Every structure is written in structure tokens, then in C-alpha cells.
Amino acid sequence: MPSVDYQRLVMPIGEAIFTQRSIRRFRPTPIPVENLRLIVEAAVRAPNGGNRQIARFLVVTDRARIREFGALYREAWWAKRRDEGHAWKGINDIPPEEKTHRAAARLADEMKDAPCVVFALAMPPGPANSVIPAAQNLMLTARALGIGSVPTTLHPSVMDRFRAMFGVPNDVAFHFCIPLGYPQGTFGPKISVRLLQGGLHVPHTHV
Questions:
Q1: Which of 83, 96, 139, 187 is the most buried (most CB within 10 A)?
Q2: Element (H or E) spanning 89, and its range?
Q3: pTM of the shown model
């Protein structure tokens, strides 16, 4: 039996799925511990390959640790942009039409202020296919509790420092960094008709 009161999740699953979106700006309000426990327990109950249960979640709420990580995350984000060939030096250099990049750059600046950051990890052999369903469970449960999230990654140039910062062994695979917090804006839906039409593929069936 679950060790937390999952019956608090009264939002219909359809509403959680269809109104979930990437939330990158958070209010400073702390997330209650009981909500974090429920979110993580939902994550570890996700289906996983061979029932090996290799997913692990490192939950960080300490303000000083998050500020320290925020500086590392910002460095990693801009390193990735350089790899992509962008000459941007700061958010003001990003063209207005690059809305997704500008929103992500704002997260890079504000990660240090997130109320909580969760790192999705995996024990050896560490494949992502046993972590992705757990991460989605985590984010859907957060959505049902009115908490926003977005899955992000790190750049190889900062991984050694990340591991040292949080004591993550080298044989434990890193997959996602997921900031959590009550959103400054609103949840979805925010999806275009074009995307809906282009996202459906029904194969031909010969009878």
C-alpha cells in the first residue's frame, strides 16, 4: 500500500495531461513536505523495464544548495548554446522571435530561485527508458497539486562538479533536472492546431 495519501490527487488524469506544460517561472512559495513525498512516491511507482526499479530521485530544497546549483545550471545552459553555434552572450542578445530560447534563458537565470529541484538519476546500468516514465509520473502528480515543472538537462562540462556538489557517484546515471514550484503564470493548454494536426499518424492497414 502507498505510504502517502494518494487520494488527495482529485484532479482528473485527463485534466492533468491536457493542461500540463513547461513551467519555467516559479513563485518563491515553499512546497509542503507532504506534497514532495507524494510526488516522489508517484514517480517511483511508474512502470519500468524488467521491474528493476533503478530510478532514483534526489530532492533538493535547501536554499543555499539551490543557489549554488543555479550558477552551475546557468553555466551549463550557455555552454550548450555555444555548442549549437549561437553567439549570444545574454538573454538580450536572443532575438524576440526565439521565444523558447528566451524562456529557457530566463530559467537559466532564475533556477537559483526555484523552491525545489529534483534530479532524476538511475542506478547501473542506468538506461533512460526506466526513468522517463517515472519523471512523467512526477510531473503529472505535481500538476495535480498545482505545482509546475519542466524537464531539463546539464552540459558535460559541468557534470563532475554536479556530482561533487551533491555526492552523486560516477556509476549513477544522470538523466534530468526538474525544477518544481508554484507557477508565476498559468497552466495550459498552450498548443497550436498545426502541432495537433502534425502530431497524428495512423498507419495504413490492408484487410
A1: 139
A2: none
A3: 0.89
